[in-house]
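Re: that chain you flagged

S.,

Sorry for the slow reply, it's been a week of failed gels. I finally had a moment to sit down with the sequence you sent. For the record, here it is as I used it:
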Amino acid sequence: VQLQASGGGSVQAGGSLRLSCVASGTIDVINGMGWYRRAPGKQRELVATISSWGITNYADSVNGRFTISRDNAKNTVYLQMNNLKREDTATYLCNANVRARTITPGLTRTGDFWGQGTQVTVSS
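Prediction finished late last night. Pasting the structure tokens below so you have them in one place:
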């Protein structure tokens, strides 16, 4: 299973970006999906998650500014980021909990998979 994130870039404070993350490979079922971020010198932190039923959860720091969504038909999770602030500058990582098929017919394995990250830089 591979996750490919895109959509990062450089914007001024108050601007918007939309991140996308596509999952591919031997996917049987995608459970929860989410976005995390890691700023220089800081630990990775949760930004937003969305369950397979569409239940969302946000970090307090982005609540009301960011919106997570998913398109199950496309195995894709999105993060719409509005009113960006300098403190949102980070590498954004997508995550998915996936039940993946194995080489043994009928046997699956569930685990967490991570994308490579996409850089978001916000300047004042």
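What I noticed first: The two ends are 38 Å apart (CA to CA).

Talk soon,
D.
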